[in-house]
Design goal:
Blueprint (H helix, E strand, L loop, with lengths): L6 E9 L2 E8 L5 H4 L9 H16 L3 E11 L10 E9 L4 E9 L2 E12 L2
Antiparallel strand pairs: 1-2, 2-4, 3-6, 4-5, 5-6
C-alpha cells in the first residue's frame, strides 16, 4: 500500500536550516481501515515517514533514517478530526542531517523527534 497517496504537501517553506510544511491527510485512505476501524489514528511510523518525505521534497534528494535518538508521540492524530498537520524541521549538516522535528495540529504538538538522516546515493 503506497503511502504517497495518504497525504499531500499543501504548503512548504524552506530556509537554510529550517523547513515548515502543511500536509493534508486523506482520511479515506486504506491504512485507516486497520488502524483502527471506527477510530482512525495516523500511525506513528507514518508520521516519521512524513518527516523524511518532507526533507526529501525540500532538499531535492532522497534520505534514509540513520539514527533516532528520541521520539515522543504526544497526541492522537485522528484524520477525520485533524485533516491537516504542520511539520517543523530544524536541521544542520550537509551529508548527515541532524534533525529536530515536530508535528502540530491546531496548537497541539502531536509528536517530537530527534534523528539523523543521510542521503541515499
Amino acid at each position: 500500500m503506497p503511502l504517497s497517496s495518504l497525504y499531500t504537501i499543501t504548503a512548504l517553506d524552506h530556509t537554510p536550516n529550517q523547513i515548515t510544511c502543511t500536509l493534508q491527510i486523506d482520511a479515506a485512505h486504506a491504512v485507516f481501515e486497520g488502524h483502527f476501524p471506527g477510530s482512525p489514528v495516523l500511525p506513528g511510523v507514518v508520521q516519521l515517514e512524513m518527516v523524511k518525505a518532507v526533507l526529501s521534497s525540500a532538499l531535492g534528494k532522497a534520505f534514509a533514517l540513520k539514527e533516532m535518538s528520541t521520539c515522543k508521540f504526544l497526541e492522537v492524530l485522528n484524520p477525520t478530526e485533524t485533516p491537516e498537520l504542520t511539520i517543523h524541521i530544524q536541521y544542520k549538516g550537509d551529508e548527515l542531517l541532524d534533525v529536530n522535528a515536530s508535528g502540530k495540529h491546531s496548537e497541539k504538538t502531536c509528536f517530537k523527534a530527534r534523528a539523523s538522516f543521510h542521503p541515499i546515493i
